[in-house]
Write a structure and sequence with these properties.
The structure holds two protein chains of two kinds.
Chain A lengths: L1 H29 L2 H4 L4 H23 L31 H37 L1 H16 L2 H12 L3 H27 L3 H8 L4 H9 L4 H24 L11 H12 L5 H28 L6
Helix pairs in contact in A: 3-4, 3-12, 4-5, 4-7, 4-10, 4-12, 5-7, 6-7, 7-10, 8-9, 10-11, 10-12, 11-12
Chain B lengths: L4 E13 L6 E14 L5 E4 L6 H8 L7 E6 L2 E2 L3 H10 E4 L13 H11 L8 H11 L16 H13 L5 E5 L7 H18 L2 E6 L2 H7 L2 E6 L2 E7 H6 L4 H11 L3 H7 L36 E4 L2 E4 L9 E2 L3
Parallel strand pairs in B: 3-8, 3-9, 6-7, 7-8
Antiparallel strand pairs in B: 1-2, 1-4, 4-5, 9-10, 10-12, 11-12, 11-13
Classes of the chains: A mainly alpha, B alpha/beta.
The complex binds adenosine-5'-triphosphate and magnesium ion (MG).
Magnesium ion binds next to helix 1 of chain B.
């Protein structure tokens, strides 16, 4: 009996050690996937929504019998039914097919512009922080200038100048997203730059560009990933918003914003399904990305909480 | 022959934001320090926290550009591009914070390889085996060479930092408080390793420390400094057994005296070290000096040769020793 009580703490300690080792191995083997185990329930829901969005956007249109753009006059304005889940629009196109096809475009625009902004913003912010002085002053003043406009108004002006279309939409949203990334990584690099391992790298002869790319940026990746995740939903809203105003994706290409705008004229006639379903899809996508981003931020970098 | 590594009247000031807007203050971190390190004559640098030891080390490896003065490697200034390249290969540094000096994203072996690669000391295909060999030399198992820094203990991290510094086969190793972050048993291990490495590789150390026991085991020469200025320098055993400057007496006395009662009597180091933004006039130690004279607050002491030691103190200006400047 006595021996057992004495040994309990030892056993607990051993169990803890094993659990820690298991966590360590999982972390190493599965990298980012390991984060999934630590997401809170709301973010897990966000993750599920996002994954579902990706799967249906890429495989949905393949599995469906209708084409998103082909008109079919006899079948126009059909209410939701078992053959057309979300009904049909004024050209007889299947709204469900179009919503999924639009998901592809909106994901492409949002992720494309966030990806580009990630790369460009990281380059600008890390150069500004590393070199300081004039480089910092010039680059960050440009960022401040972009930030000083109301984002959406600036986007409208830029699209008006460049013309509509998916490519230009990506460019414009990239421009308005870059400052967030630049500022984030700048402040991170400013603190990392003081770390002894950066000085040690210098005494090891590591050139400046490699210190930035192999030392400073990899150690800022968490911050960057969170910034990216937090901004995906904004990019998506910008894309849909501009398209809604006729400044983005051009019809007949299916896009949530364009679809909502096309459907609004039918609302009074009681044909609610044409704009409500793309609206719901946009809402769900934004919600999903936001929940996921919040969870990632809490795990990776809780200090970024605003 | 010119010495291996030489600091010539080294000065490093920092501009920092002051209390008054738009007016910056000058931190006199190092204010005219000269010394030379001869082959196989390791130098210890001691002094209170904030006296400018790390700043000197960073000037020696050119992480800081000196405000004035110069650092010379075998008589040649290192302020040229070629000078810096030579310096990187021949003078390496082990930083004060062992964990912080290792990139958290790189494995131990990769950290060593960075040095081998960029200082061009090995062919690409030899690097991996050389890195593992260097790690083995400081007591890190080859099986651990793929681990990341946070998976090592503090002592092991210090060993990796030493291995990295050894990678280009330097002649001089600058060690900034190599033991202060470690607990006692580890300190002895690291010192043992440093003693062995010095013998095996023919290294010369420039060692910054608070710990006089470390000086005793590793240093031949000693430089005592206070608030950016030299105070006393000479052969380490001589200064350790008979410090002559009032500051060295207090510093060394306070560590050597075993009994805390007498320590307080014999080592009257009152108060805090003054701020280097406004160093005291004359001799910088005069506000805390137990033997302060009127001249001390007015005139800066010049170096006096007393036997084998050099002492910057007015006490030695009349009759106590033979005056002279270097
Ligand atoms: N980059 C810097 N900018 C401004 N002030 C600095 C800088 N580096 C050092 N200092 C100041 O210079 C003085 C000397 O600092 P240093 O780090 O060289 O002291 P140290 O002798 O190494 O002290 P410790 O034993 O605490 O390591 C300190 O007052 C410090 O605040
Ligand atoms: Mg220091």
């Amino acid at each position: 009996m006595r021996r057992r009580t004495e040994n309990t703490p030892v056993a607990i300690e051993r169990l803890t050690r094993q659990a820690n080792r298991f966590a360590e191995i999982t972390k190493r083997r599965f990298g980012f996937a390991y984060l999934v185990f630590r997401l809170n329930p709301a973010s897990l829901l966000g993750l599920i929504i996002v994954v579902a969005l990706f799967l249906s956007a890429f495989f949905g249109p393949l599995a469906l019998p209708y084409s998103p753009d082909k008109t079919n006059a006899p079948e126009r304005f059909q209410a939701p039914s078992s053959s057309h889940f979300f009904g049909t629009d004024k050209y007889g196109r299947d709204v469900f097919t179009r919503v999924l096809s639009a998901a592809r475009v909106d994901l492409l625009i949002a992720l494309g512009s966030i990806g580009l902004a990630f790369v460009i913003g990281t380059a600008i912010g890390s150069l500004a922080a590393y070199f300081g002085k004039a480089v910092d002053a010039v680059l960050m003043r440009i960022m401040d200038m972009i930030k000083s406009f109301p984002q959406f108004i600036l986007a409208m002006a830029l699209v008006a100048a460049l013309g509509p279309g998916v490519r230009n939409l990506i460019i414009v949203i990239t421009v308005i997203m870059v400052p967030s990334f630049a500022r984030m990584i700048r402040s991170r690099v400013l603190s990392l730059r003081e770390m002894a391992y950066v000085d040690a790298a210098r005494t090891s002869g590591v050139p400046w560009w490699k210190i930035i790319t192999a030392y400073l940026i990899p150690n800022s990746l968490g911050t960057l990933v969170v910034t990216a995740a937090l901004n995906v939903s904004y990019a998506m809203l910008d894309a849909a918003g501009l398209s809604y105003l006729g400044l983005g994706v051009r019809p007949p290409q299916a896009e949530w914003g364009t679809m909502i705008s096309e459907g609004t004229s039918q609302l009074l006639a009681g044909r609610w399904w044409i704009s409500v379903f793309p609206g719901l899809a946009l809402f769900l996508a934004v919600l999903g990305f936001n929940l996921l981003a919040d969870g990632l931020r809490d795990i990776i970098d809780p200090r970024m909480r605003r | 022959m010119s010495p291996l590594l030489e600091a010539v009247n080294l000065v490093k000031h920092f501009q920092v934001k002051g209390d008054v807007p738009f007016l910056s203050k000058t931190v006199h971190a190092v204010d005219g320090i000269s010394f030379s390190i001869e082959p196989d004559r390791s130098l210890g640098i001691v002094g209170e926290s904030g006296s400018g030891k790390t700043t000197i080390a960073r000037c020696l490896v050119r992480l800081y550009k000196p405000t004035a003065g110069d650092v010379c490697l075998e008589g040649k200034s290192i302020s040229t591009r070629a000078g810096i390249r030579q310096l990187r290969k021949r003078v390496q540094m082990v930083f004060q914070d062992p964990g912080g000096s290792l990139n958290p994203k790189f494995s131990a072996e990769r950290i060593i390889r960075e040095s081998l690669l960029h200082l061009r000391v090995a062919k690409r295909r030899e690097m991996r085996s050389m890195a593992v060999e260097l790690l083995r030399q400081v007591g890190i198992q080859p099986s651990d060479s793929k681990k990341l820094p946070h998976q090592f203990s503090g002592g092991q991290q210090q060993r990796i930092a030493v291995a990295r510094a050894l990678a280009p086969r330097p002649d001089v190793l600058i060690l900034d408080e190599p033991t202060s972050a470690l607990d006692l048993s580890l300190q002895a291990q690291i010192i043992g390793m440093l003693v062995a490495l010095r013998k095996d590789l023919g290294l010369t150390y420039a060692l910054i420390t608070h710990d006089l026991a470390v000086v005793r085991q590793l240093c031949d020469q000693l430089l005592v400094m206070y608030l950016g200025k030299p105070v006393e320098s000479g052969p380490a055993p001589l200064i350790l057994s008979g410090p002559q400057h009032p500051y060295s007496k207090a510093l060394i006395g306070s560590v050597l005296r075993p009994d805390p009662e007498t320590r307080d009597l014999e080592a009257p180091l009152h108060g805090e070290i003054p701020s280097p933004t406004a160093p005291p006039s004359g001799c910088r130690f005069h506000p805390r000096c137990p033997e302060c004279m009127p001249i001390c607050s007015v005139e800066e002491p010049i170096p006096w040769q007393v036997g084998e030691a050099t002492i910057w103190c007015h006490l030695f200006s009349d009759g106590h020793g033979t005056g002279g400047d270097e």
